[in-house]
Amino acid sequence: MIETQSLCKRYGAFTAVDAISFKVAPGEVLGFLGPNGAGKSTSMKMIAGFLAPTSGTAKVCGFDVLEQPLEAKRVIGYLPEGAPSYGEMTPVEFLRFVGDVRGLDAAKCRKRIDDVVGRLQLESVLQQPIDTLSKGFKRRVGLAQAILHDPQVLILDEPTDGLDPNQKHEVRGLIRSMARDKIIVISTHILEEVHAVCTRAVIIAQGKLLADATPAELEARSRYHGAVSLTCENPAVLREGLQRLPGVAAVEIDAQDGRLTVFPRPGAALFETVSDFLRAQKVDFSELQWEQGRLDEVFRQITTVPAQREGARA
Ligand SMILES: Nc1ncnc2c1ncn2[C@@H]1O[C@H](COP(=O)(O)OP(=O)(O)OP(=O)(O)O)[C@@H](O)[C@H]1O
């Protein structure tokens, strides 16, 4: 279990992280979402024991990261932002060094290095100085060191940053495959990643935790949740008829692609009503869809309103 209680970080009068409390259980992948400067990396650094909180506590597998730093660090694998490492070393030298620091014996270290090199497809760059690697390979070396000792807890700050689409896919698969028996926290700006790997997400803005929910619960907060959208030849002609149907709150036509969206009143289920109407009107339509909700819209809703309301953080 990871458990933070009123975790705070202040720099002078500026509050970077403001009383954040949450728990993460084994088997969960918690996504940390938030705009630039929200406090995600600062929170992760405090949980990983790399930055002392101004106040509040963080416990990892029962170990307080301040009071029992070695025990806590032993169970944590941490990928910091930017994946810093020793640039003059090759990946294999760096991984041997990390294995040594982690106290792995020679045989176990070799076995683990083989495993992580295979998982992160590092074979082709093993003998090349890390400084000369591309951003994506540097990131993969960073991930390799984080998982080398097969830790119970993984704290990964933007693990797919800088990776190409194929690698993003691979790394998301890797995170999912490790999720079953580990506790994983990842930060990301990519909302599709939340769907791809996270079982739960917290949204942070201006240092405050503003939401803690499953991706589906977050989507249910979207005005698009339960909306029905479709493409047809002449959407403007249909608008008035659709607007009069029971349960319909609004009908909108996208200015760019002409797609028509019918929004429900609270609690109304529209799919059948809309499809019956279209058939009765003999409308030639395509791509009739029930919408789950849009995370990007919910993210904007949650992260922009408080910013405007509360003004600057202090
Ligand atoms: N050492 C420091 N001194 C002063 N302010 C700092 C320091 N480190 C971080 N901050 C500020 O704390 C705030 C939170 O930073 P943090 O890096 O945690 O944000 P983030 O959510 O990870 O952002 P991003 O998505 O851009 O990586 C930012 O406004 C940052 O400028």
UniProtKB/TrEMBL annotation:
Gene3D superfamilies: P-loop containing nucleotide triphosphate hydrolases
SMART domains xref list: AAA
Molecular-function GO terms, alphabetical: ATP binding
Name by which UniProt lists this protein: ABC transporter ATP-binding protein
Superkingdom of the organism of origin: Bacteria
All residue ranges annotated as the ABC transporter domain in the record: 2-231
Family of the protein in this entry: Belongs to the ABC transporter superfamily.
Keywords from the UniProt entry: ATP-binding, Nucleotide-binding, Transport
UniProt keyword Transport present: yes
